[in-house]
Amino acid sequence: MITISSLSKIYRTKNRTVQALDNVNLEIGTGMFGLLGPNGAGKTTLMRILAGIVNPSQGEVIINGHSLKTGAGKKAIKATLGYLPQELGMYQELSASQFIDYMAILKGIDDTQKRVQQVEKVLNMVGLSQDAERKIKGFSGGMKRRVGIAQALVNDPELLIVDEPTAGLDPEERIRFRNLLVNLSDERTIILSTHIVEDIAQTCQDMAVLSSGQVIFRGSPAGLMREADGHVWSFTSDSMERPDHGLTVVSMLHLPEGIQYRLVGSSIEKYPTAEAVKPGLEDGYVWLMRSKGQTVDVL
After folding, report:
1. Per-residue CA distances from 132 to 61, 129, 147 (Å)
2. What's the gap between Cα 129 and its chain centre?
3. Judging by beta carbons within 10 Å of its beta carbon (0-12, 13-18, 19+), is residue 194 exposed, middle or buried?
4. Structural domains for the chain
5. Strands 214-219 and 206-211, how do they pair?
6. Measured distance CA(173)–CA(199) in Å, rounded
7. For residues 231-244, b (16+ Cβ closer than 10 Å) or e, as one string?
């Protein structure tokens, strides 16, 4: 169990002060937990605090009974933590197995036999056994992400934190990566931080939305979808003029009879032929951001 209480983080420079997190309160249990929000919402700051890399300005984090406020607590948490940041620096001239072995040494796995077994185990888990001796510099972006997950798993963590893991991946690698995370979540807590709504929809049963450093939604993906009930429509137009009148265009589909728009907004009076449709997670997210006064530019 992770308990985050009244957590705030302020960055101060000579020219300005930035409140990255503002009184965040969350409880996170076992399984996949999704943290969704736009770029700049404070997600990475929160992940770095949980990983013990950044100290909060205020508040407390307790993970499995250990507080990040104390040196002993931070040490205990790091021993059971795996972390994949947005940008993981890798030694490109090393092979995958050499890099994971190096990371295992840094994580305190001193027993050579145990380390060899763990390296083989995690490379197999992420589907890289056949490429274990290849140099990382020859890997695709998706393969490098899987190396990143492997190094995060090498100490068999109870808590795995992954920050924007699918950004920049092609559709096939994104699906592969999501499936990998779901398979790993049976035995541990995984926090998936992302701005990609589909990643949450396909992996998580519990989630929160962060915006401007504050939690603006906490619940299930189904609960977020319900937020948009009565505010999502489908409208087909033979005109190239894009629907407006305070509506957000979530998607456009070109059909023989015209362009089919999926719209989110408070009123559809200007388009009497529009039909109400069942919200998806992206619709719920767009409606939530609109209702909180946040700018949403989907298309």
Report:
1. 37, 5, 10
2. 26
3. buried
4. 2-218 (3.40.50.300), 226-291 (no CATH)
5. antiparallel
6. 12
7. bbbebebeeeeebe
Query: Residue 94 contacts by C-beta under 8 Å, 6 or more apart in sequence?
Result: 102, 135, 136
pTM, to two decimals? 0.89
105-125: per-residue pLDDT in tens? Answer: 998 898 999 999 999 999 998
List pLDDT tens digits, range 218-251.
999 999 999 999 999 999 988 777 888 788 999 9
DSSP, collapsed to helix, strand or coil, labels residue 86 as: coil
Integer angstrom CA distances of residue 130 from 68, 152, 155: 39, 19, 21
Q: Are strands 31-36 and 275-276 parallel, antiparallel or unpaired?
A: unpaired
> Residue for token digits 């993906």?
221
CA nearest to 195, candidates 87, 44, 11, 30 = 44
Encoded tokens for 15: 């020219």
Buried b (16+ CB within 10 A) or exposed e, 110-145: eeeeebeebbeebbebbebeebbeeebeebeebbbb
* pLDDT value of position 238: 84
Q: What is the largest CA-CA distance in the chain?
A: 71
| C-beta separation of 96 from 136 below 8 A | yes
C-alpha closest to that of 250 among 288, 282, 291: 282
Distance CA 186, CA 178 (A): 14
| 297 pLDDT above the threshold of 80 | no
Q: E strands within the chain? A: 2-12, 17-28, 31-36, 58-63, 66-67, 81-84, 159-163, 189-194, 206-211, 214-219, 232-237, 248-255, 258-264, 275-276
Report whether pLDDT(94) > 90. Answer: yes
The structure tokens 């490109």 sit at 92
Region label for 133, one of left (φ > 0), alpha (ψ between -120 and 50) or beta (otherwise): alpha
